[in-house]
């Protein structure tokens, strides 16, 4: 299972709780990349550019194809057609959806987010809107979309678990 959505949508938090609920391993691709590279995503962007980071991301996603895990993808991962296609073939894609205003409130200054770092508040919100508009068609390929704006984590996990159960029963 693959969790997609914008930064701040709750992929890591929901993913960890969902994995526990489903009895699966939880993997955060950004955290795994940071662990393997020995530095933060922001440093990888600074060192190798976005293209370098995306190559590491593709390799990480490839490792988890077909594994019984809940995998939280970076916000831009499924915007890459080859990653999106692979994820759709190998499991259920779940879009954790949140409004840009919610994302901004959750992310704060966004200093650790390379695509937001150094931008003042209004510019961060504009950038979030721009990124969401660009990525939304890819996110919309998900089998399930769950709004996370005003929902506690346990409620989001319950909605996903229930929807997955219904999908399995219908199959």
Largest sheet: 5 strands, parallel
Gyration radius, rounded: 15 Å
* Count of individual helical segments: 7
CATH homologous superfamily designation: P-loop containing nucleotide triphosphate hydrolases
Mean pLDDT: 94
Q: What proportion of the residues is helical, as a percent range? A: 55-70%
**SSE topology string:** EHEHHEHEHHEH
Distance separating the two termini: 16 Å
Number-wise, the strands total 5
Poorly predicted regions are none
Strand content range: 5-15%
| Number of individual domains | 1
Characterise this structure:
The chain is an alpha/beta fold. The protein has one domain: P-loop containing nucleotide triphosphate hydrolases (Rossmann fold, 3-Layer(aba) Sandwich). It has helices at 11-22, 29-37, 41-64, 81-90, 100-107, 121-139, 153-170; strands at residues 2-4, 25-28, 69-72, 93-97, 144-147. The chain has a 5-stranded parallel β-sheet.
